[in-house]
Specification:
The complex is a heterotrimer.
Chain A: H1 2-14, H2 25-62, H3 66-79, H4 83-96, E1 100-102, E2 108-110, H5 114-140, H6 143-151, H7 156-186, H8 198-209, H9 212-240
Helix pairs in contact in A: 2-5, 2-7, 2-8, 3-5, 4-5, 5-7, 6-7, 7-9, 8-9
Chain B: E1 11-20, E2 23-33, E3 38-42, H1 49-56, E4 64-69, E5 72-73, H2 81-87, E6 88-91, H3 103-113, H4 119-132, H5 148-161, E7 166-170, H6 178-193, E8 197-201, H7 205-211, E9 214-219, E10 222-227, H8 229-235, H9 239-248
Parallel strand pairs in B: 3-8, 3-9, 6-7, 7-8
Antiparallel strand pairs in B: 1-2, 1-4, 4-5, 9-10
Helix pairs in contact in B: 3-4, 3-5, 4-5, 5-6
Chain C: H1 2-47, H2 51-66, H3 69-79, E1 83-86, E2 89-92, H4 95-120, H5 124-132, H6 137-167, H7 179-190, H8 196-227
Antiparallel strand pairs in C: 1-2
Helix pairs in contact in C: 1-2, 1-4, 1-6, 1-7, 1-8, 2-4, 3-4, 4-6, 5-6, 6-8, 7-8
């Protein structure tokens, strides 16, 4: 079976479409690793960015004074500067003052490698957008719900957690889906600090095997698939949490 | 349902003033309400009726004056909010049920989460109240699946489940289609007949006349006059009251 | 004294960096111009009732909207010719220009969605009212609908421009010597690791000072249009 597939793609290569990743074990291997790293970047950064987004939105809604100023400044800074420059800033500038240990043969090993910095950078970048998303989700919940909870004796924090947040989440899905699609696309920027993600390994493969067009098309299709998958997952979550008679355009 | 006027009022407002920015919506309000009394507050739109209700359970803080509910001083900044809202329930014009909770959860959640009462006991009480509100089979529905009248009756059950001493009804039929007004009013009447102290802000003059023990008429942030309904509707003395009544009756 | 020295050296390099930033601005202005023009057609194409127009417009919009900017950039850098001959004259396409074209694709796709969204945000009743008055579909679009929603398109268009500007440093990866490229060159020339943080911070500041007012203005306009 596998041999058949490999033979098919070898023949295809003879006719001008050279997809080494489907018949060359070495290319296949690094391609799969690259795809794995991309998936890992997406999942980890999405996770942390959602945590950052929720925490930031909670501070903006409940907090006052210096805490909200800090969150606002964070959002403004990360939304108004290039992700690539942020990533370089973390990787090269902050990385230069981080402690360095040595491995068994005496080579310097930085505390955080390029992958970790990429996750940090992507999480902070996407997190800034998620703060806005969740905050406007909270803003979309009419304050009569919070008021009803207060009238039942809930404190502001209790009302926020058991009433406002569950409703706000339902207003946030469309925007969150957008942010996560952008995050998925933005993982390619990790290429610049040498993370062996999909774009990076594809570049390696086409440099070695001289099949630039084929690899670019494969890569493009995979990214379209990934962004499609993100949208699909969020839509499923949205459908699963749908409430009768509640949502955009209803009451 | 007349109590001797010498008994201590359960709720008392004294010289209550409230401004939103430059607009003074309450300009010295005095009200006394005794236990078991049903009081209706009527008046033109924007006269401050709803604001009066919202000051009683502290949803709207006041600028001047004193409000007491039993021994609780509502306008004390250190007031125990949980204790206050345990004693004072509220039903809103727009029902404000929590759309992500079932009907039963809506009714039972605050006693469980806020008053820390045991769940089985609260849920039993909640089911009984839903029965009284003639909604026994709606316990596991979501609010969005109910009609406006049904939602408002759930909201009344939710207020009752906190076992308050007084319930504030804020124009509870104003958002309803005409055919649902009756079912909600009869639910309110049942609550009143069971001896609950009720303060209603309402536009339903007929209901105020037959259900209330006392009527307060407000206009432009002051109480123009107040009297038992028979007197009020027969012999209103102030020209502002007369004008209002000529429009709504 | 040491700090003062660092600051002095930073100032010395500033003109060099700012010139690079000028290229970022140039690329962004060109790409927004091309992208907005193409995006307008794509967006109106998406709304077309002709399937032969609507379907390809939607496909192109989704394709370029969901593809990573960097991947589109690679396409343009590696697959576009270094020079084109029009008639007899040969025009060389420097990498910054090819990068600009690469940025124009996602901008066009995003603007296409802005146009579609704005037109769809006009209530159906407006179309029906115009139809009842005897307007044809295209006349309704250009005389009744678009004039109403142009203001609504301005804030998201400004956001798109800000997003585009902050994407232009990606071109450093394909060898364009814009602000980030020049920053790296300066870091190498100074070969002083103490300069890393200040120089990257000043680069971030450069982008922030340019982009932040645009996003603020967009937010203000959005609020104003919403209340109208």
């Amino acid at each position: 079976m596998i041999a058949d597939i490999q033979t098919f793609f070898r023949h295809l290569a003879d006719s001008g479409i050279n997809l080494t990743i489907f018949y060359d074990a070495f290319d296949f291997d690094r391609f799969v690793k690259g795809l794995g790293n991309t998936l890992l970047l997406i999942v980890l950064s999405a996770f942390f960015s959602i945590i950052i987004g929720s925490a930031g939105a909670a501070v903006l809604t409940l907090g006052k004074g210096p805490a909200t100023v800090v969150v606002r400044a964070y959002v403004a800074l990360f939304r108004n500067t290039p992700l690539l420059v942020q990533m370089y800033f973390f990787y090269f500038a902050i990385g230069s003052i981080m402690p360095v240990s040595q491995n068994e043969i005496g080579l310097p090993v930085p505390l955080l490698g390029s992958f970790s910095w990429a996750v940090i950078s992507l999480s902070l970048y996407s997190g800034a957008f998620n703060v806005e998303t969740f905050r406007s989700g909270v803003g979309a919940v009419h304050n009569s719900y919070e008021e009803a909870a207060l009238a039942l004796g809930y404190s502001r924090a209790q009302a926020f957690i058991s009433v406002t947040v569950p409703l706000a989440l339902r207003f946030s899905f469309a925007s969150l889906s957008n942010n996560l699609v952008d995050l998925t696309k933005a993982t390619t920027v990790a290429y610049a600090v040498g993370v062996a993600e999909l774009l990076y390994v594809s570049n390696q493969i086409w440099s070695d095997s001289l099949n630039t067009i084929e690899m670019m098309n494969v890569m493009l299709l995979i990214y379209l698939g990934l962004t499609g998958a993100v949208v699909f997952i969020i839509n499923r979550v949205e459908a699963a949490t749908h409430l009768p008679g509640f949502g955009l355009g209803v009451g | 349902m007349n109590f001797s006027s010498s008994s201590q009022p359960l709720i008392a407002l004294r010289g209550v003033r409230k401004s939103f920015g430059a607009v003074e919506v309450l300009r010295g309000i005095d009200i006394d309400i005794r236990k078991g009394e049903v009081v209706a507050i009527i008046g033109p739109s924007g006269s401050g009726k709803s604001t009066i209700l919202r000051t009683i359970n502290g949803l709207t803080p006041i600028n001047e004056g004193v409000i007491t509910v039993g021994e609780i001083r509502v306008n004390d900044p250190k007031v125990d909010k949980v204790k206050l809202r345990h004693r004072v329930g509220m039903v809103f014009q727009q029902y404000n049920l929590f759309p992500h909770k079932t009907v039963l959860e809506n009714v039972a959640m605050a006693p469980i989460q806020v008053l820390k009462q045991p769940r089985p006991q609260v849920e039993e009480r909640a089911r009984k109240l839903l029965g009284e509100m003639r909604l026994p089979d709606k316990a596991s529905s979501y609010p969005g699946e109910l009609s406006g009248g049904q939602q408002q009756r759930v909201a009344i059950a939710r207020a009752l489940c906190m076992e308050p001493e007084v319930i504030l009804f804020d124009e509870v039929t104003a958002a309803l289609d005409p055919e649902m007004v009756k079912e909600v009013l009869s639910a309110v009447r049942k609550v009143a007949e069971d001896g609950m102290t009720c303060i209603l802000v309402t536009h339903e003059m007929g209901f105020a006349r037959e259900a209330a023990d006392h009527i307060y008429f407000t206009d432009k942030g002051v109480i123009v006059e107040h009297a038992p309904p028979a007197d009020f509707f027969a012999r209103a003395s102030d020209p502002r009251t007369k004008e209002f009544l000529s429009k709504v009756l | 004294m040491g700090d003062l020295n660092l600051f002095g050296r930073l100032l010395e390099w500033m003109p060099f960096l700012l010139k690079g930033f000028g290229l970022n601005i140039l690329m962004s202005v060109l790409a927004i111009t091309i992208g907005t023009t193409v995006g307008t057609f794509l967006g109106l194409g998406q709304l077309s009732s002709l399937r032969i127009v609507g379907w390809p417009s939607r496909l192109a919009t989704q394709l370029f909207r969901n593809a990573p900017w960097l991947v589109l950039l690679f396409y343009c850098i590696f697959l576009m010719p270094y020079q084109v001959s029009i008639g007899g004259s040969v025009i060389v396409l420097p990498s910054w220009l090819r990068a600009t074209i690469g940025f124009s694709f996602p901008v066009a796709a995003n603007f296409s969605e802005i146009v579609r969204g704005a037109v769809n945000s006009v209530p159906r009743g407006q179309w029906e009212a115009a139809e009842a008055l005897g307007y044809r579909r295209s006349a309704t679009l250009f005389r009744i609908i678009l004039p109403q929603c142009i203001t609504r398109m301005i804030p998201p268009w400004m956001n798109l421009y800000a997003l585009l500007l902050t994407a232009t440093p990606l071109s450093v990866i394909v060898g364009v010597e814009e602000a980030l490229g020049r920053t790296q060159a300066a870091v190498q020339a100074m070969s002083d690791s103490r300069m890393l943080i200040p120089i990257y911070l000043s680069l971030l500041a450069m982008f922030f000072i340019y982009t932040w007012p645009i996003n603020r203005l967009s937010l203000m306009l959005e609020r104003r249009f919403r209340t109208k």
